[in-house]
Amino acid sequence: MTMPILEARDLSKLFPGPKKLFTPARFVTAVDRVSMSVMPGETLAIVGESGSGKSTLGRLLLRLLGASEGRVFYQGEEITHASGARLNQLRRELQIIFQDPFASLNPRMTVEQIVGEPLWLHQNMKKTDRQYRVSELLRT
């Protein structure tokens, strides 16, 4: 049986709520016991209403935020508490595109440049090879 590339088990994130004098601490639940997996060849799209926790879930999966509860696995390895060099390596292998296109896409770049940039950064491809690969990716 094929192993998921990325998996979350009962992932939750609580943020401290507003503090009031003489009242117990309150928390706001941003992500509540999410379990999901991404198999080889799949792409995950997280959609929902504004404020539903989409960006928070993405940040939890990439370990940009620490989870309040639950576990995250990448290629079978638990990465919930990964740090340092291992965490940097994971962030080169995983990608999130946030819902705000102005925050995630540079309007001065062409689609070819945006798609080709990771190939140049992480695989150091020659320009002609990169252009060919980008055109392949955009055709699929």
From TrEMBL:
Gene Ontology terms, MF aspect: ATP binding; ATP hydrolysis activity
UniProt xrefs under Pfam families: ABC_tran
Source taxon at top rank: Bacteria
InterPro entries in the cross-refs: ABC_transp_ATP-bind, ABC_transporter-like_ATP-bd, P-loop_NTPase
Keywords, sorted A to Z: ATP-binding, Nucleotide-binding, Transport
Stretches that traverse the bilayer: none
Domain ABC transporter: 32-130
PANTHER family reported for this sequence: TRANSPORT ATP-BINDING PROTEIN
Name of this protein: ATP-binding cassette domain-containing protein
Species per Swiss-Prot/TrEMBL record: Enterobacter hormaechei
